[in-house]
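Module 6 notes. Inverse folding takes a fixed backbone as the condition and produces residue identities as the prediction. Think of it as a translation problem where the source language is geometry and the target language is the twenty amino acids. Below is one complete input and output pair. Work through it position by position during the lab.
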């Protein structure tokens, strides 16, 4: 059975993942309003992934005979700047999530909670992947600039995300 402290920490992480989903959906709404359908698609796929992260934690709590409790999800921003600015914001957000996952891992070590350590390995790798993806897009925007042509090319590329 999962400890109360670990259950509480994972419940908090579920809230963070759901907020991440909400944040990326807010970014998708912004890009749709700006007619960048590829950027919007990328954000919607990311929002779905974040919800699936929340559900991984949800299922894990029940696998360990715990209980999920939901908290309020903060309102995401509705005003955004340039695509480069938005992806820098995404990277910053993911770096915060990485720190939170690392903290969960530290708690698991402290509590000698080996199953939670094992479960978190997936999330640790996932964070490496997410930060890498964000950095690639930031590098593209920094290298090629944000002229209409370069934004249109990137929009097409991001539309292909599965
Ligand atoms: Fe669920 Fe983007 O980390």
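Target side of the pair, the amino acids:
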């Amino acid at each position: 059975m999962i400890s109360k402290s670990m259950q509480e920490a994972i419940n908090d992480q579920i809230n963070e993942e759901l907020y991440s989903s909400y944040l990326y959906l807010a970014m998708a709404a912004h890009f749709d309003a700006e007619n960048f359908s590829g950027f919007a698609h990328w954000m919607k796929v990311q929002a779905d992934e974040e919800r699936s992260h929340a559900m991984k934690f949800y299922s894990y709590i029940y696998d360990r005979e715990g209980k999920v409790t939901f908290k309020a999800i903060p309102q995401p921003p509705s005003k955004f700047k340039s695509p480069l600015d938005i992806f820098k914001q995404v990277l910053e957000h993911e770096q915060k999530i990485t720190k939170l996952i690392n903290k969960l891992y530290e708690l698991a070590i402290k509590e000698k909670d080996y199953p939670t350590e094992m479960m978190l390995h997936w999330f640790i790798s996932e964070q490496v992947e997410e930060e890498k993806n964000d950095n690639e897009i930031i590098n593209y925007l920094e290298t090629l600039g944000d002229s209409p042509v370069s934004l249109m090319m990137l929009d097409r590329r991001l539309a292909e995300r599965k």
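Reference fact for the lab report: Helices lie at 4-33, 37-63, 83-110, 114-144, 148-158.
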